[in-house]
Amino acid sequence: MAPEQTTAVLEAEGLTKHFPVRGAGRDVLRRGAAVHAVDDVALSLHRGRVTALVGESGSGKSTVARLLAQLQTRTGGAVRLHGKDVTVHGGRRFRAYCRSVQLIFQDPFASLNPVHTVRYHLTRALRVHGHAGRTARELEEALTDLLGRVRLTPAEQYLAKFPHELSGGQRQRVAIARALAARPEVLLADEPVSMLDVSIRLGVLNLLRDLKEQLSLAVLYITHDIASARYFADETLVMYAGRLVEGGESETVTQSPAHPYTRLLIDSAPDPERIGSAQRAELDEDDLGEPPSLVTPPAGCRFHPRCPHAMERCTTELPPRFEVSGKQWAACWLYDNGSPAPAGES
Amino acid sequence: MARLRRPKFLRNGKATAGALILLFFFILAVIGSWIAPYSPDATGPDAVVGPSGAHWFGTDQLGRDIYSQLLVGTRGVIVVGFAAGVIATVLSLVIGIASGYLPGRGGEALSVISNVFLVLPALPLLIIITSATPKDGGWIVILTIGLTSWAWNARLLRAQTLSLRRRDYVEAARATGESTWRIIAFEILPNLTAIIASGFVGTVVFTILSEITLAFVGINVSEWNWGTVLYWAQSQDALAQNAWWWFVPAGMAIALLGTGLALLNFGIDEFVNPRLRSGGRARVRTRAGRRLRMRVGFTPVLATVEEGEAR
Ligand SMILES: Nc1ncnc2c1ncn2[C@@H]1O[C@H](COP(=O)(O)OP(=O)(O)OP(=O)(O)O)[C@@H](O)[C@H]1O
Ligand code: SF4
Ligand SMILES: [Mg+2]
């Protein structure tokens, strides 16, 4: 299914985040130095579809998620919910926004407050968004329903538990249930399984996929494991040093990668067929060399210091998106024979 | 939380012992002046006489009953200590958490204020103020210590708040749509219990010692407290007269109260910090030397125990 066929729930265009650098350091001598964490990212999320955002550590994936969740204010660009540009900082309007867009954190050992029970976490999320019902019984039903959705049954067994009494997988399920309590349209999952034991990752991913189907959620799946992107996502975007470098249908991007960086990624992943080997398939920075400084990112194509195909113009000119096939684009001068794909489409 | 914690808390031996000692002094503070056999100011014929059936802890140079002086003096010690502790704790809470959670200028300004108060010398200030105000020393001591000794705890609370607000669960609460005050009161505050409680106990100890010191150096001796007894013992050369009963019971009372507060503090620390609490039983050491904690769910998972993680 091509993205053009459905309207996007959540879109980003030209999304940019620069963190001002403070404190000691050589780069700081220049005024206005900043970490270019995210630059000119465009993506769109559609109901019932999973979009994967793949990149190595520090490439800006979590920052994209935080910007989309409006937990951080963006430096530039637009975030559009149902086609309307939204900027919220907090208060009532933020509540309304996060009712539609919910975020799941990477580390389930850190994202639940150690002093509160499962019941507290879920009740609060229901209350905040007005889904707790009017009576104690309605609340109990809503809680049971939530835990049932994430397959923590019987619910009574989990409601009174503190986070430290649960396993990593169970905690992540509670975190997912908390996100579902808002009845969102968009779920931003920031490496939802990377902190979990390999043996239970698949279970959590399958749960997310089922929820996506049942609730017709738009899911942004952030990962540094390109093998799981192929397994789980309809569309895959590859991010390098704060910029999107390639995107398209997951199958195409993972099976015939166009961008030299994506190729390197896939070569470093031993077996994309087997999700069970996900741990080995994670990006190994040693194989790929040092990622560039985000304070003074390389001019032109940010990948050129590490690219085996780097050309003269790569060091000076920023490559726009080029269409590789109908299902795939790459921001790389190697594909400069077709016409540039219009930006903002993915 | 409180529902589950109170019984567990009392299972901690140190905390229980500390709480019992405190309870003992609280009771004395309430009933001390009723059960005192004499008025602490009532002079008698027997001056500087050792313990006897009539005077359990002996008498001073005017024949006053030292046992009664200690009993009556307990109230002043406890009231002043805890009142100043409450004032300092409330101030440190408000200023510490606000300066840690508020972004930008406001937080910085509060931090500067607490740094100024941090270098205010409380005891010399106290001596100056109390010697300048002749009557009603108790309130002056409470206010001076309460208003000057919050800064250290405020700094600790600010540092901890700064670290807590970066935690995922605080960010997750924000992403859920919780309001700022709710995040402070329900997500951050419960995780500061240990610092708040030990700060409170520390201030109480400091206040009590300051009050006793003041009385001992002869300021504010119009009201009876343990320091007043020591002041008279010192000024009448009790040691040279071998009148040990004059200062030993007062010293013991101070030491016992201090021990009780310290035990309570240890108990709180152990209780709130689960790493001290579990005593290492739930942890295993792998052959590689990494420390792991076993967690059993429907899928057994080994999770690394991280430094500084309160869970
Ligand atoms: N609040 C912040 N202040 C300053 N710099 C930040 C901040 N948050 C992130 N960064 C920087 O932005 C860059 C991107 O960080 P981000 O967390 O988005 O990466 P990531 O792709 O999620 O990495 P990982 O896979 O390790 O989670 C990093 O260089 C990081 O140091
Ligand atoms: S634009 Fe140039 S440097 Fe960048 S990936 Fe393509 S070939 Fe390599
Ligand atoms: Mg991240």
From TrEMBL, chain A:
Positions in coiled-coil regions: none
Gene3D superfamilies noted in UniProt: P-loop containing nucleotide triphosphate hydrolases
Keywords per UniProt: ATP-binding, Nucleotide-binding, Transport
Source organism, top-level taxon: Bacteria
Domain spans labelled ABC transporter: 10-266
GO biological process, one term: transmembrane transport
GO MF entry, a single one: ATP hydrolysis activity
SUPFAM superfamilies documented for this protein: P-loop containing nucleoside triphosphate hydrolases
Family annotation (InterPro entries): AAA+_ATPase, ABC_transp_ATP-bind, ABC_transporter-like_ATP-bd, ABC_transporter-like_CS, Oligopep_ABC_C, P-loop_NTPase
Family: Belongs to the ABC transporter superfamily.
PANTHER family: ABC TRANSPORTER, ATP-BINDING PROTEIN, TRANSPORT ATP-BINDING PROTEIN
Protein name in the entry: ABC transporter ATP-binding protein
Organism annotation: Actinospica acidithermotolerans
Automatic annotation (TrEMBL), chain B:
Transmembrane segments: 15-36, 77-102, 109-132, 138-157, 192-219, 244-268
Topology of this chain in the membrane: Multi-pass membrane protein
Alphabetized CDD domains for the sequence: TM_PBP2
Domain of life of the native organism: Bacteria
Keywords, alphabetical: Cell membrane, Membrane, Transmembrane, Transmembrane helix, Transport
Listed GO CC annotations: plasma membrane
InterPro entries referenced in this protein's UniProt entry, alphabetically: BP-dependent_transpt_permease, MetI-like, MetI-like_sf, OppC_N
Main location: membrane
Keyword Transport among UniProt keywords: yes
Name used for this protein in its record: ABC transporter permease
